[in-house]
Amino acid sequence: QVHLAESGGGLVQAGGSLRLSCAASGRTSTYGMGWFRQAPGKEREFVAAISRSASSTDYADSVKGRFTISRDYSKNAVYLQMNSLKPEDTAVYYCAAGNGLVDGRYDFRGQGAQVTVSS
Questions:
Q1: pLDDT value, residue 84
Q2: Residue 45 has what pLDDT?
Q3: How many Å apart are CA 79 and CA 72, to the nearest integer?
Q4: SS3 for 14?
Q5: By the 8 A CB rule, do 21 and 109 touch?
Q6: pLDDT at position 41, please?
Q7: What's the CA gap between 5 and 62, in Å, rounded?
Q8: pLDDT value, residue 13
Q9: Which of helix, strand or coil describes residue 68?
Q10: I need a labelling partner for 62 at 20 to 30 A (CA). Which of 18, 47, 108, 116 fits?
Q11: Sign of the four-CA dihedral 91, 95, 100, 102
């Protein structure tokens, strides 16, 4: 069993930066890790994923070049550095673990962290 807990969300002005952290408990080394988001009235959207070995990453086109995902095996954690934030990035961001993240599938998910970007 894997438990995930996000932190680092908040309110930021457009153009600003935030760093989301995801603390994991349980064995995550066999899973890819990633982030999804869901804005009010919209469907859940894939944001970013990093492979089990951290050798590859994937990003949604909407965040490519602005967001960076990383993982720290020693801390059993995953991070999402978000730069040049836009109001349309406003959403609840969920950390997830699984091996089909790019296809929208996950095995475990956290409770979410609110990110609000003001214009």
A1: 98
A2: 96
A3: 8
A4: coil
A5: no
A6: 94
A7: 24
A8: 98
A9: strand
A10: 108
A11: positive
Chain center to CA of 93:
6
The CA distance from 64 to 67, in Å, is 6
In terms of Cα–Cα distance, which of 104, 101, 102, 93 is closest to 39?
93
Q: Which residue has the tokens 């095995």?
A: 107
State mean pLDDT over 33-42. Answer: 97
Residue 96 confidence (pLDDT): 98
3-state secondary structure of 16: coil
Q: Can you give the length of the chain in residues? A: 119
Residues 1-14: what's their mean pLDDT? 97
Residue position matching structure tokens 């970007």: 117
Work out the number of other CB atoms within 10 angstroms of the CB of residue 91.
22
In tens, the pLDDT along 47-94 reads 999 999 999 999 999 999 999 999 999 999 999 999 999 999 999 999
Q: Is 66 exposed, middle or buried (0-12, 13-18, 19+ CB in 10 A)?
A: middle
